[in-house]
Amino acid sequence: MKLISWNVNGIRAVMKKGFAESIAKLDPDILCIQESKAHPEQVDELMHDYPHHYWNSAQKKGYAGTAVFSKHEPLNVTYGTKNKSTDEEDDEGRVLTLEFKEYFLVTVYTPNSGRGLKRLEFRQDWDKKFYAFLKELEKTKPVILCGDLNVAHTDIDLFHPKPNYNKTAGYTQVEIDGLQKYLDNGFVDTFRHFYPDKTHAYSYWSYMMNARAKNVGWRIDYFLVSEKFLPNVKKAEIHPTFFGSDHCPVSLEI
C-alpha cells in the first residue's frame, strides 16, 4: 500500500494547478491532506477515485483543516483528539484519525508558532497533549502519523539552520524537543530511517525569494511510525517534482 501526505495550502486552489493529475501519477491507496481550507461539498465530487472521504474542517472558513481520501474503508474515524483541553485545536480541524485492522493512521496539521513566536507557548502545550493522544492510541495498536509537523528536526532539515535557530517558527529548541520526545519514546522518522544523512531533501519552500527554484527549503512534513510497525515499512520518499502548493507530497509504502 502507498500512503501520501500533502499540505496542499488550500485544496480548491491546488485543484486548479494539476492536483488531480498529480494524484493520478502518485496513485496512493490513501491520501492525507493538511490545510484543506475547504468543506466537503466544495471538493468531494472531484475525488471520485476514492470512495471513502473524511473531513475535519476548521470552524473558521478558509483556514487549516485536514482530510483523508481512501480506497479502503476504515473501522472507525475520530475527528480531533476528543480532548476538552485541546478545544482550540479541534476547532481548527487539525487532527483526523482512521482506524484500520493493523494500525491507526493519524494525519495532523501541527500549529505554527507564528511570527515573532507569539504562539510558541501554545505550540509547546499542544505538542505535549498530542503526544499523549498518540501514546493512548498505541496502547491498542501501532500508529502511523503523517502530516505537516511544522518543525525541522535537525540542521540538515533546513537550508539555513544557524540564522533560523530559536528565531523562526519551526526551528526553535522548544519545537525540536517536542518532536524529539516522539522519537525518544517509540516513534521512528521513516525518511531518516532510510536516508539518515541525506541533505537538501526538503518538503516546504517559501513562496518568497524564488526559494523553491533555489531549493532553499525545510523538511517539515513527515511519516512517523510506531517502532514495532517499522518492519512493515518498505519505503519513505519526498516528491519535490510535484507542484501546486508551497509543500510537496511525502509518501510511505507499507
The main sheet orders its strands as 3-4-2-1-14-13
CATH class: Alpha Beta
Mean pLDDT: 93
In which range does the helix fraction lie?
10-25%
Q: Write down the overall geometry.
A: globular
Under CATH, the homologous superfamily reads: Endonuclease/exonuclease/phosphatase
Pattern of helices and strands: EHHEEEEHEEHEHHEHEHEEEE
Strand residue content: 15-25%
User: Number of helical segments?
Assistant: 8
> How would you classify the helix and strand content by structural class?
alpha+beta
Write the CATH architecture name: 4-Layer Sandwich
Low-confidence stretches: none
For the secondary structure, the number of strands is 14
**What's the end-to-end separation, in Å?**
5 Å
Major sheet description: 6 strands, mixed
Rg over CA atoms: 17 Å
Task: Label this structure with key terms.
254 residues, alpha+beta, Deoxyribonuclease I, Chain A, 6-stranded mixed sheet, 14 strands, 24% helix, globular
